[in-house]
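Example 3.2
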Amino acid sequence: MARRCTLTRKGVLTGNNVSHANNKTRRRFLPNIQSRRLFSETLGETVRLKIAASTLRTIEKRGGLDGYLLEAKEAELPRELVLLRRRIAESQAKKTA
């Protein structure tokens, strides 16, 4: 299982444990990855994603999955989410027209 956020690409970081005697040993900082089903209001369907908890807060701040994807640049998103973003944009364009 890849420990990487699907949307923000946040992944594992490495560093040192430092003891009181200043001994250094390598350690890993793991992101808080959660499997979540997010609802697209425009499409009326749910999408399963593995996202970081910090990304979930950002999604809520931007007004849901639709708002997050529409504000994101296509170059930063994986292919399947680029296709979802385009479907959302087309659906919103049809509703306004």
